[in-house]
Amino acid sequence: MSSFDDLPKRDRNHALEDETEAAFQALIAQSSDFVFQGGDRKDYGTDCQIEVVVDGHATNVRVHVQLKGTERALNADGSLSISVDQSNLNYLIAQPYSFYVAYHAPTKSLRISFVEAVLRHYEHSGKNWPSSRP
Asked: Do strands 99-104 and 48-54 pair parallel, antiparallel, or not at all (unpaired)?
């Protein structure tokens, strides 16, 4: 084995991130209501933005999206659970109508949950999070 054969291995998380983004971009590309405006360069909690299109007109109304991918099994009721850090939730909630997109790799399906719904879930779950929002 040559020393040039010792290269970094691409881990599954990187591939899953790529699959997640590709699935979401494909969904947006099929829509006449949104335009994918690209990924955020410095990701602190928003992976990309989509722009709202109304009657074929670009509006510059942007929605922030956080992408999550998983290979774990679905819940018994067919739902998908993905944990969200409080700092990520606080960051994303600053932009109205932001949402999470969860990609379930085994079924190649996307699930969407608005940030407000995630916040309500956590507030009612008994987690000891501050009651005030940013």
From this structure: unpaired
